[in-house]
């Protein structure tokens, strides 16, 4: 078995698609209308990897938008060139909550997505 995708709560499908594709550079894999305002929307990192199923929150689910990691880093993105990707994300308006730092495992910085979920941008030590 393998994990192929997981649910990522959003306020609005189009807002989330725009942010993931235009800001993070993800690829829109699928956007299928399921009727009654529901869509099956999959995005994935440009370099491949686990896909996010963008799911429009309904009812009490909306309370969890931006809090899917409970305040901890929720998602981890890996790069082979930290300086390049960090500069590119900053130029596209991504909010980093800390400056880059060097750890035993590599160079890392935490950023927030459009809803406030925390992500790591990591270049592993080779």
General description of the model:
With 126 residues, the chain is α+β, with helices and mostly antiparallel strands. The protein folds into 2 domains: 1-58, 2,3-Dihydroxybiphenyl 1,2-Dioxygenase, domain 1 (Roll), CATH 3.10.180; 67-126, Roll (2,3-Dihydroxybiphenyl 1,2-Dioxygenase, domain 1). It is 17% helix and 42% strand. It has 2 helices and 9 strands, in the order βαββββαββββ. The strands form 2 sheets. Strands 5, 6, 7, 8 and 9 form a 5-stranded mixed beta sheet that branches. A 4-stranded mixed beta sheet has the order 1-4-3-2, covered by helices on one side. Strand 7 (101-103) and strand 8 form a beta hairpin. It is globular and about 50 Å long. The model has no long low-confidence stretch (mean pLDDT 96).
List the helices and strands and how they pair.
Layout: E1 5-10, H1 13-23, E2 27-35, E3 38-44, E4 51-56, E5 73-78, H2 82-91, E6 95-96, E7 101-103, E8 106-112, E9 118-124
Parallel strand pairs: 1-4, 5-9
Antiparallel strand pairs: 2-3, 3-4, 6-8, 7-8, 8-9
List its salient traits:
126 residues; alpha+beta; 2,3-Dihydroxybiphenyl 1,2-Dioxygenase, domain 1; 2 domains
Radius of gyration: 15 Å
What number is the mean pLDDT? 96
Residue share in helices? 10-25%
What is the element string, with H for helices and E for strands? Answer: EHEEEEHEEEE
> At CATH's second level, what is the architecture of the largest domain?
Roll
Q: How many domains, as an integer? A: 2
Residue windows where pLDDT falls under 50 for at least 5 positions: none
CATH topology value of the largest domain: 2,3-Dihydroxybiphenyl 1,2-Dioxygenase, domain 1
Number of helices: 2
Please tell me what the overall shape is. globular
How far from one another are the termini?
A: 28 Å
CATH class of the largest domain: Alpha Beta
Task: Give a quick account of the main beta sheet: strands, pairing sense, barrel closure.
Answer: 5 strands, mixed
The chain-level structural class is alpha+beta
Strand content: 35-45%
What is the CATH superfamily classification of the largest domain? 2,3-Dihydroxybiphenyl 1,2-Dioxygenase, domain 1
Q: How many strand units?
A: 9
């Amino acid at each position: 078995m393998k994990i192929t995708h997981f649910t990522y709560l959003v306020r609005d499908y189009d807002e989330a698609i725009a942010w993931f594709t235009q800001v993070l550079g993800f690829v829109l894999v699928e956007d299928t209308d399921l009727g009654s305002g529901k869509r099956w929307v999959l995005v994935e990192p440009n370099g491949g990897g686990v896909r996010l199923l963008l799911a429009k929150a309904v009812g009490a689910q909306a309370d969890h938008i931006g809090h899917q990691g409970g305040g901890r880093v929720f998602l981890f993105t890996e790069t082979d060139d930290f300086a390049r990707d960090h500069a590119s994300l900053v130029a596209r308006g991504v909010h980093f909550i800390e400056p880059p730092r060097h750890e035993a495992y590599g160079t890392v910085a935490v950023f927030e997505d459009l809803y406030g979920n925390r992500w790591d941008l990591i270049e592993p030590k080779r």
